[in-house]
Description:
The protein has a four-stranded mixed beta sheet, with helices on one face. The chain is built from seven helices and four strands; from the N terminus they run ααααβααβββα. By secondary structure, the protein is of the alpha+beta class. [2Fe-2S] cluster binds at residues 86, 91, 127, 131.
Amino acid sequence: MSTADHPLPDDLQAEILALARAEPHPRSACVAALQRVQSRYRWISTHHLRDVARLLDMSPDDLDGIATCFNLLFRKPVGRHVILLCDSISCWIMGRDHLCDHLCRTLAIRPGETTEDGAITLLPTVCLGHCDHAPAMLVDDTLCGDVDLPMLARLTDTLTEEPPP
């Protein structure tokens, strides 16, 4: 049984209940609760989504509708690092597709996939709001602008050299 199939641990359940108590309506804490789950497991499994829904007195379908609406909530397993490559018109004009092709060749994956070693997941995303520095990407929690091939090479070298946890 993987950790994604185990019930949420007591301490995480307590955090989620505290978030719910701090809101006028428990379901108002749903995004923050899902973020807590994701920060622990890197993604939100269906089992964990059901646990959160129960804690917030929501249906799993309602909560899944919210979870799938947010680009930064992952409903499928992701790598230790996530590269969100902006695919807005500004980034596209400034060479986003060339960068994506380079990443795909370098990492031997396609958008939406994770490297074989589990180090990096490459995901397209809608506008990151960094259009004045297009092309842009979000690497884990770091926003990068004016992305070029040398920057990508340094980044992929750094991320793939890190040992797994």
